[in-house]
Structures are given as structure tokens and as C-alpha cells.
Specification:
Helix 10 packs parallel to helix 12. The longest helix has about 35 residues. By secondary structure, this protein is mainly alpha-helical.
């Protein structure tokens, strides 16, 4: 006898437009209720409220964790529902509900970005906090493309290619932009407003790419603090050199700028070792 299972091709399970409207409508309604109930927490300044027990660090990290978790789960849900969609008379409402969910994600992202900005206003910029900013901007662009794609219907590979392009552009910017010099400028500007500056972080935790910016900003600092920065730079870069002389293929533009800035300012006059395991840049004419 003929097997019926072999006679008919296997059918892929599809979700009708009504099912998608119910699922996406429920998610959008739940998300809306959460945003309304948590409005003062999401867009307030909880750490400064006496007795809240929440620090700026916890406030920012909670926002980052909420954004990452919810954005990831919602993206998976939205893409899966679109992939297995069976178009019907309520298709328009299903797409509207999907876009509403994306808009609500963007609102959560704005909240997380604001929390991070409050954290930086209180304690200054670091590379890790700046990378979180870049991540959130990239996530905002990705969610915008996701909403655009869902409103018109996602095509196979369309979203993945654009997500990869966003990631590549973000990495390229971080590689070629001297963001550590920007961090120095932002923190010194904050010092002018608040009188607070973490010189130990700027001197010892940032790479030599930050050295020229530190040298340029020293005139903006009080004499005692400027002398402290000068002494710190001398201790880091003008100590006893333990590495060999830099060879031609070890050259890079950042090292050249750092060495030039340190010598021009008279902070280091002899050998310059930019890292404990790095090669040594010797003065011109020395052997």
C-alpha cells in the first residue's frame, strides 16, 4: 500500500495574522503597562533620592541589563513571527503591533542611555562607559531598521546584513577615532564644572593615545593638580626602560604622537617606554 505520509509534501507550520495580532498586541500592552508604571524610575534620578538605596552604578547597570535582555528577546520574537507569518486580512494590524513593540523598545533604550549619562555626569567618562554608549547607539540603529523592515516585510538575510554593517561601522569608528583623548577632554571639562578629576585613571588606565590630550589640558588645571599629572606621566613613561629599541615595523601613529607630546612638554627627555612590555623609543641620535 502507498504511504499517505509520502504522498503529500510536508507543510510548514504558519502563524495566521489573527494569532500574530493577539501575541504582539499582548506584548505591546504589557510593555506599555510596564513603561507607565515605571515611568518615574525609568526617567527619574533615583540615586539622588534620599533613602532609595540605589547607586548611580547600579542604576546604569540595571538599565543596560534591562535593555539588552528585553531587546534580544523581543527581536527574536518579532523576527520569528514575521518569518512564520501567513498573510491575511489583518496583516496590517499585525505589522502595526510589531512596530509599536519596536517603538517601546526605543523608549527603554532612551531610558538606559539617560541612566548612563547620569552615571557619567556623577563620576566621569571611562572607556567601558563609552563602549556602552556606542553599543546603545548601534542598538538604536538596529531597532530602527528592524521596525522599518517589519513595516514592509522582512526579506531573508536583509536584517542580518545591515546588523553586520552597523557593527563594522562601530568597530571602525572605535579603531580610528582617538576616543581616549576625547575621554580626557570630557573629564577635564567636568572638572571645570565640578572640581572633581580622577587623574589616576587618566594617567594609568588609559593607553598612550591619551598622553597628548593630557599634556594639552594641563594648562587648564590648577598648578598643584597640573604638577601631579606631570609627575604621574613622568613616572609612567619616563621610568627605567626594560624593553629593546623599537624596530621599524613596530611604528604606529599613536606612539609617535605620544612620544612627541611628552618630549615637547619636557616631561620625558630620555628613553620613552609606553608600556611595561613595549619596546623603547629612544631620543634621536642615541644608540
Amino acid at each position: 500500500m502507498r504511504n499517505p505520509a509520502l504522498a503529500e509534501p510536508a507543510r510548514t507550520r504558519r502563524l495566521a495574522d489573527t494569532e500574530r495580532v493577539v501575541v504582539l498586541g499582548a506584548v505591546a500592552a504589557l510593555f506599555s503597562a510596564f513603561l507607565l508604571l515605571q515611568l518615574s524610575y525609568l526617567f527619574g534620578n533615583t540615586p539622588v533620592v534620599r533613602g532609595s538605596g540605589v547607586t548611580f552604578s547600579e542604576y546604569a547597570r540595571q538599565g543596560f541589563a534591562e535593555l539588552t535582555t528585553v531587546a534580544t528577546l523581543c527581536t527574536i520574537l518579532l523576527v520569528a513571527l514575521d518569518h512564520w507569518a501567513a498573510p491575511g486580512p489583518r496583516e496590517r494590524w499585525a505589522r502595526v503591533a510589531a512596530v509599536v513593540v519596536v517603538v517601546e523598545l526605543e523608549v527603554l533604550l532612551i531610558s538606559a542611555l539617560r541612566r548612563l549619562w547620569l552615571y557619567e555626569s556623577a563620576y566621569g567618562f571611562t572607556t567601558l562607559r563609552l563602549y556602552a554608549h556606542v553599543y546603545m547607539v548601534a542598538a538604536a540603529l538596529f531597532l530602527g531598521l528592524l521596525g522599518w523592515g517589519l513595516s514592509r516585510g522582512l526579506r531573508s538575510g536583509w536584517l542580518a546584513r545591515r546588523a553586520a554593517a552597523i557593527a563594522a561601522v562601530a568597530m571602525t569608528i572605535l579603531v580610528y577615532w582617538n576616543h581616549e583623548a576625547w575621554i580626557v577632554g570630557q573629564n577635564v571639562g567636568r572638572f571645570v564644572r565640578t572640581g572633581q578629576l580622577d587623574t589616576a585613571y587618566l594617567i594609568w588606565s588609559l593607553s598612550p593615545n591619551a598622553a597628548p590630550a593630557l599634556v594639552r589640558t594641563m594648562p587648564q588645571l590648577p598648578p598643584a593638580l597640573a604638577d601631579s599629572v606631570r609627575d604621574g606621566l613622568r613616572q609612567r613613561y619616563g621610568g627605567t626602560a626594560g624593553g629593546g629599541q623599537c624596530r621599524w615595523f613596530e611604528w604606529n601613529r599613536g606612539r609617535e604622537r605620544a612620544v612627541a607630546a611628552l618630549r615637547t612638554a619636557g616631561i620625558v627627555r630620555g628613553d620613552v617606554q609606553l608600556h611595561a612590555r613595549d619596546c623603547v623609543v629612544r631620543p634621536p641620535g642615541s644608540e
